[in-house]
Model the fold of this input.
Amino acid sequence: MEPEKKRKLPEEHKPLAPWKQKLHEVIFEADTPAGKLFDIILLVLILASMCIVMAESIHAVNLHYGPLLRTAEWVLTILFSLEYVLRLLCVKKPLKYVFSFFGVVDLLSILPTYLGLFIRSSHFLSVIRALRLLRIFRIFKLTRFVRDSNTILISLRKSRHKIVVFLFFIVLTSIILGSMIYAVENEVNPAFSSIPQSIYWAIVTLSTVGYGDIAPVTPFGKVIASVIMIIGYSIIAVPTGIITAEMGRSKKQGGLSTQACPSCSREGHDTDAKYCKYCGYHL
Done:
């Protein structure tokens, strides 16, 4: 009989190469000394980069230190680019990381500087790197915040259909009331020059922003404005009530670790978890 051939593991279940595992531990994990040190250094560089971009926007500072600031910004951008490439190298599924929340943030944080070569002033968008400071929750093991954020996200997902229906109702209300105020005010108030302009006013009033650039002058117009203002309070109350109700239904989770899955790069696992609860990969 022929010797039994060894079964090959599916590609997604094969372990990472040793050097990739070590790199993943340093870059993605905050539970180890090396990982914590890496994240702290990264946060310091992010803060430095944000300060540079802000300082460069000040004319007097840019006039005297412009070349130095731009050089420092490029050095940091190259370091962040190298870090992004290393992150792609040490995950099982690079594309999943690219389209994850932090993957998108990491990419958007380095693109503006390169775009600045072609589009003037676009490098100022580098302040989007501020979003990367969310990693501070992982570094200092603020797992309670991670758990709370997960609860909010789950509640938002569960209540999304109700919120969409409510927003659709708000849009319809804005169109109807905007058209009504146009019919009432158009002939005596040039500020309501068209239905789109009147709908804009209705949305501003409904959202309780109230710029004051447009205001009704007729008695009936003021009645409509008063109705819109009262309805405006529901914009805050209704979605808040929907989400709060969903949060109340959510079960409390146990302790969470800062460990990231080597395959899908997602976090939020229980401290005693052996497998990723999202993709099933061995942690």
Observations:
- The mean pLDDT is 79.
